[in-house]
Write a structure and sequence with these properties.
Rossmann fold; single chain; 12 helices; alpha/beta; globular; 4-stranded parallel beta sheet
């Protein structure tokens, strides 16, 4: 796991502030994924699929990004965090509209946009307006369990997409690799997560990965933001070496802490860039941790590292004495925006 900057993790972190018992969800994430293996198994899209688009926001956009990084296909795959689908979308495009609540205005707008272009649409939600629209038009929808934070439903929202893509002939059957995901998630990651928290507490994490693993870097960043209510940022290699790194030349006494997430399948030049960049930054006086992802397949590595990031964000929140579940600023903004009228 971590390969530098030895640190003794605090094993006595109190969970008294965890009002919604998020730790129970994290410990049982493998069960969620096991249940999710069945979702979407009854949905198949007819006709050739010439492109795939996943629309969502926040935790409901992550599934599309995981899928994009995982599958190898010869058709375009895009992730949309906005109010409309790309101009290239047409009747051959399979569009997944993902909104855990079913009321996310950007997702509802994307649904309307995709339908206007004649796309093949499948929705994933726990209910809300999205469910109403699908049921009234008899459109396929995958209903996931209610009562979770959107960022806590990654398994429920991701694995059905893979089932549907497989059923529709877009990708091969993924059953064995999905089973490996469940096995990987059963491993105890808490001590490693606490070790990472010991390093980044009172610092600003800067998280980098290859472009293919951007879902992991983005999740780690979001886990710090949403759980600990603390700033964190992410970007990718090799782009980092063409601009970001220059900005840290005068940052010797800053609070930044770099985390590089290296996957076993990353391009050899990406791995070399991470190693050299680590040395450059450490020579400036900045701490760098390289986390090397290992596992039986890409999907298992993505999910296990995502869970590690969620544990780290959770324990960081407890270190700060902050309840990890509420996202008050987001809810306040939604109230001020008022109801969405399409």
């Amino acid at each position: 796991m971590p390969d530098s900057d030895d640190h003794d993790a605090n094993d006595e972190i109190s969970s008294d502030v965890d009002s919604e018992n998020m730790i129970e969800y994290l410990d049982g994430f493998w069960k969620q994924c096991q249940e999710a293996l069945k979702l979407g198994s009854d949905i198949s899209i007819e006709g050739p699929v010439t492109g795939v688009v996943a629309c969502g926001m926040g935790g409901s956009a992550l599934p599309g990004e995981i899928v994009k990084g995982y599958i190898d296909v010869d058709i375009p795959v895009d992730v949309i965090r906005d109010y409309s689908v790309p101009k290239w979308v047409n009747h051959g495009t399979l569009v997944f509209v993902v909104s855990y609540s079913g009321n996310t205005e950007e997702a509802l707008a994307c649904l309307k946009s995709a339908r206007s272009k004649g796309a093949k649409v499948v929705c994933i939600s726990s209910g809300g307006k999205l469910r109403e629209l699908c049921e009234s038009s008899r459109s396929p929808i995958v209903l996931v369990p209610k009562g979770l934070q959107p960022r806590a439903s990654t398994g429920y929202q991701t694995l059905p997409i893979l089932n549907i893509l497989s059923n529709s002939g877009v990708i091969p059957d993924q059953t064995s690799e999905m089973d490996d995901v469940v096995k990987a998630l059963k491993k105890d990651m808490k001590e490693s997560a606490k070790d990472i928290v010991g390093r980044i507490k009172d610092k600003i994490p800067l998280i980098y990965s290859s472009d293919r693993m951007i879902a992991v870097a983005r999740l780690w960043k979001a886990a710090v933001n949403e759980n600990s209510k603390h700033p964190a940022f992410f970007n990718v290699f090799p782009e980092m070496n063409h601009n970001d790194m220059i900005g840290f030349k005068q940052a010797k006494n800053s609070r930044y802490y770099f985390i590089f997430i290296e996957d076993a399948e990353d391009h050899m030049r990406i791995k070399k860039r991470m190693k050299i960049t680590k040395e450059i930054l450490q020579n400036i006086g900045l701490p760098v941790l390289i986390i090397k992802l290992t596992g039986p397949n890409r999907l298992a590595r993505m999910f296990s590292s995502i869970l590690m990031g969620m544990y780290a964000g959770y324990y960081l929140a407890l270190e700060y004495g902050i309840d990890p579940s509420p996202v008050d600023l987001v809810e306040d903004l939604k109230k001020q925006m008022g109801p969405y009228i399409s």
